[in-house]
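Provenance

Sequences were taken from public entries as deposited. Structures were produced by running a predictor on each sequence independently, with no templates supplied. The record for Polyphosphate kinase from Propionispora hippei DSM 15287 is shown for reference.
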Amino acid sequence: MLTKHENFINRELSWLKFNSRVLGEANDKQKPLLERLRFLAITSSNLDEFFMIRLAGLKHQLESGINKMDAAGLTVREQIDLISESAHDLVRGQYRFLKGTLKDIEEHQIYFRDIDDFNGRQKEWLDDYFHNTVYPVITPMAVDASHPFPFLANRTLNLAVTLVRDDETSMAVIPVPRGLPRIVAVPGTDGKQEFVFLEQIMMNYAQNLFYGYKIKDIAVFRITRNADLSIDEDDVKDLLIEVEKSLRQRKRGQAVRLEIAKRANPVLRSFLINALKISEPDVYEINGPIDLTCMMKFVDLPGCDALRYAPLVPQVPADLIDQPDLFAAIRKKDILLHHPFETFRPVVDFVRQAAADPKVLAIKQTLYRVSGNSPIVLALAQAAENGKQVTVLVELKARFDEENNILWAKRLEEAGCHVIYGLVGLKTHAKMILVVRQEDSGIKRYVHMGTGNYNDTTAKVYTDMGLFTANDQFGADASGFFNVLSGYSDPPVWNKIVVAPLGLRDKIEALVDREIKSAKQGHPARIIVKMNALLDKEIIIKLYEASLHGVKIDLIIRGICALRPGMEKVSENITVRSIVGRFLEHSRIFYFYNDGLERVYLSSADWMPRNLNDRVELFFPVDDTAHVERIKEILDLMLKDNRKAYVMKTDGTYRKVDKRGKEINCHEVLMDAARKAAKVAEIPLEQRLKPMYRKDL
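Predicted structure for Polyphosphate kinase:
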């Protein structure tokens, strides 16, 4: 009964619903205006990746003759058709919200203009800008018998042009240059800030590129291509070389989407469809500027701080205030970090101090996604140059970060680090740093484990948790973990951690079974899970089984959720909610009541087949009682959020939580709590024992 198709939600449609929730943030009238544009940009970026990977994968399956059903009972063909319907609706919503938001920002003297709306002086400026800045960069490309349709790179913006001379029609393509600003600031009047899109300037002056011809029609278009990497690792001798080769192939993948101006001439439209070999459902008519990812830079417009969120100042964790020696602080107690409310700086300093400390003998670390100018990578390189034994696993197959990771891997090797390029057939998604230090009492190991990447940039906008510990059992596990990654060692018997793909699925099922056992005995049983995605069919069935036996289960799933809550005699005891707000919810947290002996775990893994079967992942307990209580409070806060939380209904749709009563935005509460905790920690101990009132904070 639990395995019936109607008990599951399709992965792709669930993801599109998540992106609809992101789009909903762009329509939140309480949100600062430029932040609304940021969410439109995020929605567009998300859709790009969805088409390049998910839709492209389904199309490849169909072309290969695969039309099997998923857990929800949908064939590949049915999924593609439903995706098309949902995605078209989503895009229409984007431009509906864009129109309203651009109208609203005009109240703040910010205007997006059409060329004809500028005055004479501004048109003179535009004329100069085109001829002296744009014209030297652009290259019109003819399309005829001797000039085949040019290859156009993935996600590039272009103009398609129909030309006429002597009653003969010709076609041409003009790529919009990436090196120039997409949104051009035109000198304004009367204190106004006025802008125009680069492609509109090019369209206005395009006749200058075709002397002797007359432009009949011109339209903006953009192509999205299949960007999934396909690497047969069994026959690979050098993974780095193979990934580099595949990256070149990515740029030339089959077109899977055509975005074109809504008012484009039908003949021009048909010409592009035929040239790109794309089907009609994959054509998206855009009623506005194509590719809203350009708004991501625009929202940082100088002088408009009032139209953005007040800057977040991540706080120093209370346990680390006035603790310049990280190793001494970690020896005293485990330290829990909650980003971005608490600063990521201690993680960077952990590696920096280890690199400079003469007592440190070795540093070992996994890297999945890092920033473009990563201070952690620079510190690892410095450590090797200082004579430390440095081992780094750089995951070359981290999607869309492959090029960045290849660059860092080469630099680390040049600095003298031992670099491991992942494992054959598996992505290493686990997050761990091990520092081995010679101390008076002997060798001491210090460990950091986390739910998110070692990326100082995303740590400012992603919610994640990390744990520092000098616990000897964690230290022994960390040594064994890196030995498995770097050599031929079989996994040891772990003291604390659980590692996928060997053991994590069994551990999860055992933890759920323990709650089922308690429920059967008439004891309270409770599970709270916070993740980015829940997709694994076996785990979902296990949760259904727990629900049937009376285990109360609350799921906080940001994105994809294939589980269907609230079904009679299946999931009546399960709730699902998604929090979409200022920060991207990224932490993976797991709570089990355990018959009163409560257990909390953190992990790098979502409950998806790829995480449990095809990735190296970490799942580790939080032992400190104070940390357990703190995490429980955070989970409880998220379950009470009535500002940014959406609740899933049984049919798979989401509704905003009822806002009646006290308004609770968990992100704002957590920011405030971090500030207060830092202030309290700065107060001398004897003063902390005195009563404190709101005015004191």
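The chain has four domains: 1-107, 117-278, 318-496, 512-678.
The domain at 512-678 is CATH 3.30.870.10 (Endonuclease; Chain A).
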